[in-house]
């Protein structure tokens, strides 16, 4: 480019010199002719253009030498003819080192595909050639003198000077831009990955939310307060029992709400939602549209306002809380029963104390009229009625027990007989009851409260199944079941081969196979809302499992149901039932310490024991008992101790006495339930007897202790 300017300047100088000589020769002749004037104008004009050319040359040189890009000049063979300072700093070659070397050796070793270097080997010299890069901005890979790569942006230009083609390459180092682009690419990829991950998380969360809503029976809604219409989620539709085309306006909503709650919800919405309250919470009962079931729902909502601050929409959730309500009702009922149980326990204690005094006096009365058979007969019947009353009170005590499981060995035959008497009143009189009980004792290790629950639930279930039967019948059977030697279904699970088989059957509505599969699930019920909690058979199943038993159900629709329950027998051998009490065993003058805070009961007991042949010491409470024992420690053979007393209870008094003499025998007697008053304390093998007790039973127990 500089050579071309110099050639133009030389040509202009030659022209100016020739014109100047011609002008001087003409001026020697006198005044200037028009031709001379014209030459003068040409000369001035050429000098002006020459000045402009020099200025342009200076600017071009300044730009090339101070450019931030490398500028390299080449001839048509690709040999470097010019090398600006930036090229020297960029590629590590000084100008005199680079000049004369091939461009392909110093700057770019390999051009991009489809391009050619301007040398005799690759460049045709035809600017229209497919391999020509002239005028194209391309990215190429160059290299520093030390071999390190340099990403470049190349713009190749061509010009002619003195008939020769010259090339100018402008090269820009784009290393920083490449780093930025790479960083942006990494950032973009990271962002893309995060977007994909977040999208997947949202999809997963949405799926989890949907599953959670289904599991929790939670639906969502939006209520347009201005248009008085609402939309609902799929889960809410299922809760309300509505289809897609259901009319979702105010009337449509109120039609779902139970009539007894419509005024409440309408009043609540007008008071809270329409006046702009932020949050709402309400519980109402509904009637599902598809099946008419009554369900409880709980709604949470939030009022959304428009730009003017007026209530616009109500959004929120609705949850089916029917099971929670049923459980709450069952819990409240349980609390009521516990309160009743506490009351029954206290009343039963007082009745037992009175009955104990009565039976003691009856025993003494019979001794006084031994020669009067008629009087003995009347007194015996009164005594029998007293003990039947005591048995009923004992059933009430057992019923009032809390939920703890306390197993003991007892005869299931006698227990079921007495429990049936207690609960027979709950069965309507129009239902015929058939019973068949084994003549042999069937001892089991069980909890009396749970055994009662089992019988009550079986009877209630049979009763409910007979509501629409003309001649309802319930059969109760209890018999010995011995596992056949070649059978394994029961023995494999229980490791027993002898069972008490309790069967309760009815001729009621029966059950389908699908219902049978679910009857033991908590809260499952086929009864109308409000008529059952769905917990009875679930509790029954749990109680049978607790006793290592097994339950089987036979039933078909319209053909009644049979519940068969098998309880493994205790290790004690079965024996023939006997209910006749023996005669009291006489004492031999041994000393008995009788402790009771009821004076009448204590005096009656002392007289009975004296008549039985014992020497009796008395104490009114635990403190007196300890003092009396200390004073007569060597003489006392047995202590007959009431449990619930003022000052110091029977158990605490016995423990104080055992600190002095760990071998002393104690018989605890109580009108309460044993487990309610002993609190599982260490009682050293002592015995228990319940008030009121039979004199013969007490006599046998004392002789066994002595």
UniProtKB/TrEMBL annotation:
Superkingdom of origin: Bacteria
Cross-referenced InterPro entries: CheY-like_superfamily (IPR011006), HATPase_C_sf (IPR036890), HATPase_dom (IPR003594), His_kinase_dom (IPR005467), HisK_dim/P_dom (IPR003661), HisK_dim/P_sf (IPR036097), PAC (IPR001610), PAS (IPR000014)
Domain PAS: 56-101
UniProt-listed Pfam families: HATPase_c, PAS, PAS_3, Response_reg
Span of domain Histidine kinase: 346-571
Swiss-Prot/TrEMBL catalytic activity: ATP + protein L-histidine = ADP + protein N-phospho-L-histidine
Residues covered by the PAC domain: 136-186, 280-333
Its EC number(s): 2.7.13.3
Group of enzyme by EC: transferase
Keywords: ATP-binding, Kinase, Nucleotide-binding, Phosphoprotein, Transferase, Two-component regulatory system
Residues modified to 4-aspartylphosphate: 642
Residue spans crossing the bilayer: none
NCBIfam families, sorted: sensory_box (TIGR00229)
UniProt name for this protein: histidine kinase
